[in-house]
Amino acid sequence: MxxxxxxxxxxxxxxxxxxxxxxxxxxxxxxxxxxxGLLGASADRRSPSILAIGPPAQVDAVRPILAAGGAxxxxxxxxxxxxxxxxxxxxxxxxxxxxxxxxVVVLGALHRTLRIAEAVEEALRVLxxxxxxxxxxxxxxxxxxGPYDFYRFSHLGLRGLFLQCEELDSGMVNxxxxxxxxxxxxxxxxxxxxxxxGFVLSxxxxxxxxxxxxxxxxxxxxxxxxxxxASVFFFGKRGASTLPVSELVAxxxxxxxxxxxxxxxRPAHEVFTEWAVRDRDVxxxxxxxxxxxxxxxxxxxxxxxxxxFTAIDAGCGNxxxxxxLNSSPGCLAATGVDASAGMIAKARALxxxxxxxxxxxxxxxxxxxxxxxxxxxxxxxxxxxxxxLRNIATTWLKPGGCAVFGIDHYQENEPSLRWPTGIxxxxxxxxxxxxxxxxxxxxxxxxxSWRADAQPGKAGTLAMLVEMPGAASEPASQRPPEL
Length: 483
Hints:
The structure is a single chain. This protein is of the alpha/beta class. It folds into 2 domains: 14-243, Vaccinia Virus protein VP39 (Rossmann fold); 275-478, Rossmann fold, CATH 3.40.50.150. It is built from 17 helices and 14 strands. Strand 4 (101-107), helix 4 and strand 5 form a beta-alpha-beta unit. Helix 11 runs parallel beside helix 14 (341-350).
């Protein structure tokens, strides 16, 4: 029996060591560092535990990051994998008790099992409530694991496996540049019949295309790039509710989104998830800043900022107002609440340490009452705005607290009357007097109403400042003037 030439192996190993990688690990590392940071901020005095599922080589590469915060890291993988994991098991049947881990990290394991749904269910079973999950899988990449490589996942395909989780971030790990380089190398590798020549050509493919990976960061936000990414990820936390499939689809970021047409009216939270994908939230922030400045100035004139205050932003969108409140000198804590999963995911990505909640505004109740509630462009999207106002009055605000509401869709603002049809969403259309009476109906004491950021040819934002009964009345000279 002929023996292999050891010098050939040595030369091959040296060439492999010098061959540039076609992938970049910055995105994965950044998300995992964020995961560890969140565990450190939320864990009690015990060390957090992390289950890493995937090939030993991949897990070993990120183990220093996962263990940096003192976490206990356990690695599990399927029996067919090369290397020595801590536990060999079928990913669809994990040998751990329920809620055993604070975080689960899945690196390229789902595409190597035929029991994907069961594997996801198992990963969530061993995860504690509100525990963190990071999943990374290939999309447009050649076969990696020979006969044990079964599936590929688009961005929404991977996100759709975790509908029971709230998104913190998702997108491309390696983009279209990496996908092109991988295909080019694989093309060259497939040309010759002889193995050694295939090795030579694939090495040439790596050297001639590795630079394409550096274009991925520049293309990350391009709609067409997500449709042809080499690999994708999902980062989230185990939630108490399930994301509707319709809102999952609304979160599509690819090029075809611009051609979508919606004939029937949709829930507002689906529309806002779509807007978050298209960066329309940035335009909303820019257009509303001047009006919100006036609203906050009026609210701060009523609040005693020297004593410190807590706040909630109802309909927070991408969290820009929450971040603004948190930067105010007297703000002790601010929380953003929104029914749009896409907007909350974007807020959490922009502000990882902020407090953001996905919830129905009309029924959600905060764990503690606050001093200030701010809401910009949220009230009229509800079928029954009074129900939300009453909920804020009875469960959100402290006695003596104040709230300020801003809306651009009201009967006197004629251009806004076309919005329900143009956007395809329900809007409650009331005159100014009805909005003011609704505030009193909900139990508020009106302080002031005015048109914020009004300009020639622009009706402005209907701004309404109210108080909750319970505090000692201020002298009239200290109150904002009535308009």
